Give the backbone structure.
Amino acid sequence: MLTIAVTGATGAQGGAAARAALAAGHRVRALTRRPGAAAATALRGLGAEIHPADFDDPASLDAALAGADALFAVTTPFGTGTGTEVRQGTALVDAAAGARLGHVVLTSAAHADRGTGVPHYESKRAVEQHLRASGLPWTVIAPAAFMDNYASGWTLDGLRTGVFAWPMPAGRPLTLIPAADIGAFAALVLGRRDDFAGHRIDIASDALTPAQIAATLTTALGRPVAHRQVPLAQVRTHSTDLAAMFAYFTDHGLDVDVAGLRRAHPEVGWHTFADWAHGQDWPALLGR
């Protein structure tokens, strides 16, 4: 049994990793800036220890990591900026090095190591590079596009009118993964340090085109859903970062060996997009 510190524990990836680690029998320290949040309370109910921690407060990180065996590290630029992600990710790695942790599993993004030019991929690349240079035993898991994003934001707004609005051509494949599979793979890696230390692994559970996604959503929602390609210029008015990401998805794609991952690690219980879509409470999400 390991003692695993998990950052972003009240978020999607961190929460999934914390739950998967608990299910695997590990002790979990859930690091969060919001120890009173409902998600923190839920994790406490599952047996996690809740530790207040802030990337911009080194003392809080030192206290939360002291005596832990391993760390699941997630950073984000959203709501702050790419410079903040690099600064906070660097601080987290430095705190892990100070605590002499036996393993750090960093979640990044598929292809972030390839010089994509996508701003938030480049910030993740910088954090990866700092981790590699830290001297710590490390593993980078790099998820493809999140299935969970299809149940929020502009995508959910479009689904209310029967439209799957997505800034890619109908026939361009995209590799996808739900947070649950990221968490399950993270727990696997954390429990098998000797097998995974020093490796960077792009991960995905399925690959579909926007047209296929729309068809799957039609079945899951029980009513017609049609794909509509959102112009990148429209996305750019909201976020040049996301516009660059979708341009990369269209021009280069995210080639992740989905079949190979399923063969090598069946214990993860990989979900197809259909599995994920049929598991959502669409009436509640759509407000009807």
Notes: The two ends are 44 Å apart (CA to CA). The mean pLDDT is 95.
